[in-house]
Each structure stands twice: as C-alpha cells, then as structure tokens.
Design a protein that fits this description.
By secondary structure, the chain is mostly helical. It is built from 16 helices and four strands.
Length: about 400
C-alpha cells in the first residue's frame, strides 16, 4: 500500500477519517438500500411481464457465475472433498432455500406489494427460533428474561403475520396527486403499476411460505456446514442446483420459448440487479458486516429496509398503504427486536458463565462471541449452530 508520508498509508488515513464503527453503519445502510431496491426491482420485473420461472433462473445463473471463482480460489484449503452424500444434501437444501424460497417470494410479491413483502421478512428470526426450539436445537429458557423475550417476540411476529394475511383494512395512505402526475409523465414509472386486482390474502400466504422456507433452510443447513465449512462453495452448489430445479419446473410450467427472451433494457436491468447486486455484492457486504459487527448488529438494521422499500414503492409503483399491513408490520418489527434483545441477553449470559468465550474487541451495543466458526446469518441459534 502506498505511503503518504511519515509511514502512514492511505488505508490508515481512511480509517482515521472513517472509523470502523462509521464504516459499518454506512455499509449497513447501503446494504439495506440494496435489498430494498431488490424488492422494488423484482416487483417491477413482474409487472413488466417477466416469467416467475425465467426470472429466478437468470438470477441464480448470474449469482453462480459471480460466486464460483471466489469459491474456487478462496476456499481451496478449507473445502472438503465432494462426495455423493454432500451433493444430495446440497440438492435438498436448494429445494428449500433456493427453489421454494424464491418461488414463494415471487408469487407473494406478485399478489401483494414490495413493502409488505419486506415487512413480513422481519418475522424470519422468530420463525427460525421457533423451528430450532421444536427441533431441540435451541433451548427455551422461560426461567430467564432472554427466553421470555424470544418467546414473546415469536408471538408478536406470528400475530403480525396473521393480521397482514387476514385483514387488509382501509387505505391509510395513497400517493399524492402531484406524485401521480410525476408518474404519469414518466413512461417507465407508469409501466410499473401496482398490485391491483390481486388476492392479498393469497399473496400473504405465499410470503409466509417464503419465510418458512427461508427459516427451514437456516436451521437445516447447520449440521451440513459443520461437515462442509466452505460457505462460498456451499452457496455456489446450491445456486447451481437451484438453476437445475427451476429448469425442470420450466419444462412443465413455462413452455413458451418467447418467455426466455429479454425484451427491454428494464427487464435486463432487473435480472442483472437481482443476480449481481442482491445475490452477489450484497452477500459479500453482509459477510464483512457480520464478521466485524456481529450478527445482532446486522439484524437490527432489517426494519430500515422496510422503510426504504415503502418510500421507493410509493414513488416508483404508486403503492397504497393499508391499515392491516401497517399494524402487522409494527407487530412483526416489535417481535423482531424482542427476539434480538433476547438473543443479545443470552450472549451476555454465556460470556459471564463460560470463561472460554471471549467478547470481541469491537462492540456495537451487542457483545459478540468469538469462536473458530463465525456466523454470517441471522443471530438466532446457539453459537454452535449458527450458519450462512
């Protein structure tokens, strides 16, 4: 690294201007904007008529191409030899974490809106905790405040998801006439539209299926990653199998050859954004943020994504906001923070009672336990089972 005088490198100067704490907050805000854009871009792609089968195929092909070289070169030493047992497990996990997850998401998004798709995703930590508790991976300690908080958070999330699904309610907010005139003057924005004439309850059920698939994937991959710790290779294999599985579905459900054609620059941008930004760049940024700030710190920013999606969707899609969705979103976000607070308290308890666990030097309001296996996912399971 070039020196700027006095033995001080450019990197050191940047760190002086932007301490790591500031860098983490900037990176997390950028990450939430990136994911928020994915919700809006995906909805725009569906409104433009792109196939719900073709879109994830192209997305996962791009993600696979992007991840493959990094997985190959960066994980040469830690990647175990591949065998049939691993391939079968990767294939089955891809059914849950790629195919079912993405299919349910697109179906739900098509019937609801980006805002409420983002809002209901806040229930994933609570659902994962519930699944882990049912499978005896996570112990429910009702004799401690952290256990009570996680259970209460799960109840709030389930209640919020139920409200969003069963009660739409009156329109609370509709874009102003001036915003409608802006959209009318822009052919691109006008072509995006909103979810009019769709089944709201059906869409919410699909989104719940999306969250269940995502949570199930987080829980079930834990034992696999213990034996196969090469996370980038692990993800690359699943993207590959996800492409194959969607192609099989396409053979039965998407026989129109014209559906595979990218007809406009907007469709091309949507596919590129989903595959490169949301599945590639955002993945790398999230790994860095969780490694530096801890999984609880990263998860605390999740509701910011919902707020950004609401603003984007209102401008780009002319989205209306309904009472049931707002009530449900508040309940889900409240549940999210209860689960995260409970997990944070559990970590403090573990640090106090297990001398072998050391708190990381960087502290962002949530103590982080250092170990040989660093988590890059939701802070939901016991340290030994946290996964990609």
């Amino acid at each position: 690294m070039a020196e700027t005088g006095g033995g001080v490198t450019v990197t050191d100067k940047i760190k002086g201007w932007f301490p790591e704490r500031v860098q983490l907050h900037i990176a997390m805000l950028a990450l939430q904007f990136g994911y928020a854009g994915f919700h809006v871009v995906s909805r725009a792609a569906l409104n433009m008529g792109i196939s719900k089968i073709v879109f994830p195929v192209y997305r996962n092909i791009l993600a696979f191409i992007l991840l493959l070289p990094f997985a190959y070169f960066l994980e040469k030493k830690e990647r175990p030899p591949i065998n049939l047992n691993f391939l079968v497990q990767f294939f089955l996990l891809a059914i849950i974490g790629i195919t079912a997850n993405q299919a349910f998401y697109l179906l739900g998004l098509d019937h609801t809106s980006p805002t409420f798709a983002s809002a209901i995703q806040n229930s994933v930590p609570a659902i994962t905790f519930l699944m882990a508790a049912i499978l005896r991976i996570e112990k429910v300690r009702l004799d401690r405040k952290d256990g009570i908080s996680k259970v209460a958070g799960t109840v709030f999330c389930i209640a919020g998801a139920s409200v969003i699904t069963l009660y739409q309610g009156p329109t609370i907010y509709s874009p102003s006439p001036s915003l409608h005139s802006v959209r009318a003057a822009s052919p691109v924005l006008q072509s995006l539209g909103d979810a009019n004439g769709k089944s709201w309850s059906l869409g919410c059920l699909f989104l719940i299926g999306h969250c269940l698939s995502w949570s199930g994937w987080l829980v079930l991959q834990a034992p696999v990653l213990k034996k196969y710790p090469a996370r980038l290779s692990f993800t690359s294999y699943q993207c590959f199998f996800g492409v194959l599985q969607f192609l099989v579905l396409a053979a039965f459900m998407e026989r129109d050859i014209n559906a595979w054609a990218i007809r406009s620059g907007s469709e091309l941008f949507s596919v590129f954004y989903a595959g490169v930004v949301a599945s590639g760049i955002a993945f790398a940024v999230q790994i860095w943020c969780i490694d530096r700030g801890g999984p609880v710190f990263v998860a605390l920013y999740q509701p910011v994504q919902t707020l950004v999606v609401a603003l984007m969707a209102s401008v780009a899609l002319g989205e209306d906001f309904y009472l049931g969705g707002i009530i449900g979103a508040v309940l889900i976000i409240t549940g999210l923070y209860l689960v995260l607070w409970g997990k944070n308290e559990e970590r403090k308890f573990m640090i106090q009672n297990q001398p072998g666990l050391v708190q990381a030097p960087i502290d962002h309001g949530a103590p982080r336990i250092t170990s040989h296996n660093k988590s890059i996912t939701q802070p939901l399971l016991h340290q030994s089972t946290e996964t990609v």
